[in-house]
Amino acid sequence: MAIHEKHLIRPENIKTHDNLVIDGVDVSGHWSTFIETRVVTDYNEQLQDEIAALPGGEYIHRCWQCGSCTNSCTVNAINPDFNPRYWIYLIRVGMESELLRDKEIIWQCVSCNKCTYACPRDVVPEGVMKATAHWLEMKGHTAPSNSTIFDEEFTRQVVQTGKIEDGRILMNFLKNSKQPLFQDWLIQMVKQMLWHLPIKYLMGMGLATLFQPKTKSWGKARAAIEEHIAEEKAAERAALGLDAAE
Amino acid sequence: MPDRKEKYKKVAYYHGCALEGTAQPYNTSTRAIAKKLDLELVDIKNWNCCGAMEVKNVDPEIQTYLSSRVMSLAHNNMGQDVVMAPCNGCYHNLKKAEYDISHKEKSREVVEKISAKADHPAYEAGQVETIHALDWIKYGYGEDELKAKIKGGLKGLKVANYYGCMYTRPRHIFPEKDQGGDSESTSKPHYMDDLLAIAGAENVEFPLKTACCGGAHTLSDSDTSTRLVLNILLAAEAAGAEVIATECPTCHSGLEMHQIRALKRMSAETNVKVVYFTQLLGLALGLSPRKVGIHENVSNSIPLLKEKKIA
To answer: What is the pLDDT of residues A181-201, one digit of tens each?
Structure first.
């Protein structure tokens, strides 16, 4: 008998025997594939509460495992290991060690919200994915993902000036994520634009990169936003049992 | 809502960051259409970023505050009751802020707290109505009126209408959609199809209208985005489209960037062109290619549009 949903079982837990005799019966061939028995003892009973304490994770307790999220998921369609339903299950039962095996891909949620649209229980799986990715980083299980590096650079600019500027975001992101500025696709894009772009437009882009666009009298809003973010971050760290300072 | 024609005739225009940067042609063509159709766009003075797709990942309430400040400016400083945002990101965030402020105690508290500290009136739910450029043209000008105004049009141009994620999802932030009649559908949106059909385009049956281009990770997880975009480009070509019409700066620049990246990194060549729907509509209204910023796109649609005698 073939094992369906084989991708949910780790390859090392699938045992296939070329020749196998059980109780005197030769079960070689179709009947020789087994899933390794295992006993889980290291539950983290706080896991669901910790995820629920982070923005986006609030409604994880509503999940009844229908699988609509994974079924509708954009990323799952190109990588079957990306499985929101399964991760929500692991979090709810506290199987932290199992969750950690997928720690390098959870951040890849593209926030298309197809899951949120499909979910009959308003779990907001998109939010749970974000909360889980942040949890992994805050607990030190993973380094900040490229997504986090991008979000932080973007937010830093908005908080500082009220606005963003595309060119500056791109350059700072590539620098912060240690990627070369001269990407083949970027060079090709610039080439294609130079073909037919008016000089005026190019100069405008150059000026925007040099002189950052700003919202006027933004200072008070900026101070209030920074204060709020600091308070929220401290509360999140406290909820995860981490020291106040990073 | 028969009063929408009057209501949308003069709107607060929130173009946002992208339309000053990579999405200039969307701004150029939207303004050119307004002028042509005699609809008044009043710029929101001293606006700020809505938070895009990033700020919420750092702090969701700050994103709500940022979007609420824009709506507060429109209501309190300009006396406007309609904000028109052509960018799907801005449109989505303003709608989301509206929902959160009316449904979530914490969002309301944070908006009130920061607005007070920043010395401006806090936005209150219901003070403005946020609409997309599609609503603005469909109802502010009117479909019959548009039909009468089209010159030559987009005859013979095969178009795949691409709406992306943020225009329809999540459903709860768009209470006016899925209401039957001619309201917009979140599962199979049609407003862009409607307008471009009036403009003479031949809309193809495109199954990926609301698929995701991976825009949130266009730079941070480019390989995933390239694969998602390639799906969209290939599906459009398979449906017979010559052009993909867009209504979102993130989708538009994502399609342009990853079309090139798919060729460079995956040797996957696609030839379908990427054009903002406002550019197509502008051309159909008799505006020159330069007026709608066709030459500002990375995707070069000029030869195709010339061949079709549209540009």
So the answer is: 888 888 888 888 776 666 666
